[in-house]
Amino acid sequence: MARYVNEGVDVLVVTCTGGERGDILNPALAERADILDNIHEVRRKEMDAAREILGVRQEWLGFVDSGFPDGLMDPDRDHSLPLDLPEGCFALQTLEDASRPLVELIRRERPHVVVTYDENGGYPHPDHIKCHEVSMEAFEAAGDPDRYPGTGEPWQPLKLYYHLTFHKQRLVALHDALTELRMESPYAKWLEGWVDKPEDEARLTTRVPCSDYFHTRDRALLAHATQVDPQGAWFKVPLDVQRSVWPTEDYQLARSHVPTEPPEDDLFAGIRESVEAAS
């Protein structure tokens, strides 16, 4: 995001919920009553700070956080049973109700590219998965004049991507580099328990060089102080190692209405040419 803002791209971050049921993951803040009692307001201020650092715009859709159910990551959980989620939360909204404000926003803002979570939500937080479902619905529906009447003139975004940060190829490269440097790797146990899936082979389609902005990225991440432990795994790999070993942010191209051929190094590959030709 910081790279594209620097290049003159208008970047809008859309936030579905207010984080009302979010956990405090920074041990230094875990017992702060002023935060615990006002987590919604704190999360908004954190987003304000991160937005300023990245230089992006941001919109709230206004849905209520679903929380992270106990036992969700338990490998023995019976996935046939529904999650115990609070009434009225984002994850329990109908697809149409949850998608309508995003369709309206896409029709108003007219983006060329949409970036969202994959079908697993990055990790299976119910709101991440709902965000994926809503993003897919809005991407497909925003250009159809017969769908979601009353939400503005139709607009079809040209490409949709999934975030692809924690894929095996990247983790192995960073882990091996740290091991060679005799440094602790935060990925060792993760890789030991990694289960390869055939469908993951073709996910990495797009690597966007942006190592000059890794410091900005980390500053923006740290601005979400209740959600990030500054001593945690996010920051265990020195930036110079990241820049030399894996200097990109990575994505999976999931939908495209313009000709493009992976591997890509730009989220706008195929779009710049199409827009210039049209003008």
Tell me about this structure.
- By secondary structure, the chain is α/β, with parallel strands linked by helices.
- The longest helix has 16 residues, at 39-54.
- The two termini are 26 Å apart.
- Helix 3 (39-54) packs antiparallel against helix 8 (214-223) and helix 4 packs across helix 5 (126-141).
- Helix content is 35%, strand content 13%.
- The strands form two sheets. The protein has a four-stranded mixed β-sheet with strand order 3-4-6-5, covered by helices on one side. Strands 1-2 form a two-stranded parallel sheet.
- The chain has helices spanning 2-6, 33-36, 39-54, 95-109, 126-141, 168-180, 188-192, 214-223, 239-245, 271-278; strands at 12-17, 57-63, 113-116, 159-163, 206-209, 248-256.
- The relative contact order is 0.15.
- The protein has one domain (2-70, 83-166, 204-272): Rossmann fold.
Structural topology:
Layout: H1 2-6, E1 12-17, H2 33-36, H3 39-54, E2 57-63, H4 95-109, E3 113-116, H5 126-141, E4 159-163, H6 168-180, H7 188-192, E5 206-209, H8 214-223, H9 239-245, E6 248-256, H10 271-278
Parallel strand pairs: 1-2, 3-4
Antiparallel strand pairs: 4-6, 5-6
Question: Could you give a short description of this structure?
Answer:
This protein has 279 residues and is an alpha/beta fold. It has helices spanning 2-6, 33-36, 39-54, 95-109, 126-141, 168-180, 188-192, 214-223, 239-245, 271-278, and strands at residues 12-17, 57-63, 113-116, 159-163, 206-209, 248-256.
